[in-house]
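cache lookup: miss for this entity combination. No prior model stored, computing from scratch. Input as submitted by user K.M.:
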Amino acid sequence: MRITPRAYEVKKVVDILEDPTFDSPEQMAKAVIKEVGDMLQMRDLYVLVHTWADGSKGLNMGPFGAVAEAETFAKKMSFGGTGRVVPITSSGVILANHDGKTSWPGYCWNPECGHSPTNHAMDGSSRGKCHISVCNCSKFMKDDPSAKKTKKATARAGAAKGVNEL
Ligand SMILES: [Zn+2]
Ligand SMILES: [Zn+2]
């Protein structure tokens, strides 16, 4: 399965690799594998549904990270019959909409919340208090607070550079 890593996925793996509390490389490797498995479950993937030339059902093959990957695979294997690329909906996203997901784009970044925006009450044009009864979140946090810091620092560095060039 070919996938393009996304910035927030890279950050989560780096957080594990830089965590000094692991007892052994094996423990760290397990944490990375679990994290990546979790990430893959958050993606909409594709399967290749195959039908033999006589109309009988072939196998459903996959998952693939993209339509093009499934098509390349079908071409390479040249099974005969017909193939159809079918998107599969991420069960991880459906679960996250139901249960919430911490430190993940699209969900509240409050580390004690992680619930979906629709679980938060409307407050003017933004979203306020979380509806989930066990949750104490008082305002939907749209962006990763640690990412914001980096962006600001970069902007500042850029501005400083501009001054130097004058
Ligand atoms: Zn919440
Ligand atoms: Zn929240």
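stored under new cache key. The beta strands are 45-51, 57-64, 82-88, 120-123, 126-130.
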